[in-house]
Write a structure and sequence with these properties.
Length: 135
């Protein structure tokens, strides 16, 4: 019971912009800006952090190429590329997807606010988050 798996299997129709054996790209039904596109793996995983590494890399390879094409084929001056992980981050469909949101001007319908929080101890934070090795 996953709507993006139903899209992959063809049960739910979408406007596709790219497809290969690993990934599918289609227009988001609720266009935040003109050309708003989703790139998903055909194989189900709930979000990016639960998807295997090879598939994740392939999804981003496709996303990058589709983003280049959107930039070329529209008058977008920029593009936001993001994947929401879990409800608290705005995820509503629990199948890994990358949003490609072309940007036309700073007052279009996409807003992302990055405001400073209270002062943080950056030294302690960096120590907490430091990763010695990727594996
Ligand atoms: P998120 O909030 O990051 O989980 O994004 C899910 C996205 O899927 C939303 O932007 C929805 O508009 C989009 N979406 C949901 N159902 C469909 C559908 N049937 N076809 C295309 N896009 C969809
Ligand atoms: Zn799914």
């Amino acid at each position: 019971m996953c709507i993006f798996c139903d899209i992959v299997s063809g049960k739910i129709p979408v406007h596709k912009v790219y497809e290969d054996s690993i990934a599918l790209a289609f227009l988001d039904i609720a266009q935040v800006t003109k050309g708003h596109t989703l790139v998903i793996p055909k194989k189900h995983s709930a979000h990016m952090l639960l998807c295997d590494e090879d598939t994740t890399l392939e999804v981003y390879r496709v996303a990058r190429r589709i983003a280049q094409n959107i930039m070329e084929m529209t008058d977008a001056g920029g593009i936001n590329i993001l994947s929401n992980v879990n409800e608290v981050a705005g995820q509503t469909v629990n199948h890994f997807h990358v949003h490609l949101i072309p940007r036309y001007n700073e007052n279009d319908s996409f807003k992302i606010e990055m405001n400073e929080s209270e002062p943080q101890n950056l030294k302690a934070l960096a120590e907490l988050l430091y990763l010695d090795s990727l594996y």
